[in-house]
Specification:
The structure is a single chain. The protein is mostly helical. The chain has a domain of 53 residues: Orthogonal Bundle (Multidrug-efflux Transporter Regulator, Chain: A, Domain 2). It has 5 helices and 3 strands, in the order E-H-H-E-E-H-H-H. A 3-stranded antiparallel sheet has the order 1-3-2. It starts with a strand and ends with a helix.
Length: 145
């Protein structure tokens, strides 16, 4: 169904003043009906009347159509991007859950190790191996003197 426009809507659509629309109606350049004391312009008639006009009006109409087309394309692209983002979020959540589980396992292993060997025993074992190497190298040097 063809949309009916007021003078102000037609002016906005064409990027001109309301006075320009009224003048074009008076010159029969735009077809309009007088309904209850107000002009009603069918969008189809407005577009047809502007096809023969020179100047920026035709380019304005083509720009409007181009922008509508671009808006539809961008809506489609945005929808695709939102779906991809949802998938990426789901994958990242899965990775985070997996890493959290691994971290919990590592923490549990460390706690088990600490319970089996208190800190002082681990330090003593570590230092003992270092001092043991140091002592054995000192003995070799002192024996050679």
């Amino acid at each position: 169904m063809d949309r009916t426009l007021s003078i102000s809507e037609a002016a906005r659509m064409l990027g001109v003043s309301e006075k320009t629309i009224r003048n074009r109606i008076k010159r029969n350049e735009i077809i309009a009906e007088l309904v209850n004391g107000k002009y009603a312009i069918k969008e189809h008639d407005l577009l047809n009347s502007m096809n023969g006009k020179k100047g920026g009006n035709v380019s304005n109409l083509s720009l409007v159509e181009q922008i509508k087309s671009e808006n539809e394309y961008l809506r489609t692209e945005m929808s695709k991007a939102q779906e991809e983002l949802s998938e990426v979020r789901q994958r990242s959540d899965t990775i985070i859950i997996t890493l959290t589980q691994r971290l919990d396992e590592q923490i549990t292993m460390l706690e088990d190790m600490r319970q089996r060997h208190p800190l002082w025993q681990r330090v003593k074992a570590r230092l003992g191996s270092v001092f043991g190497q140091w002592n054995s190298s000192n003995r070799v040097e002192s024996n050679s003197l």
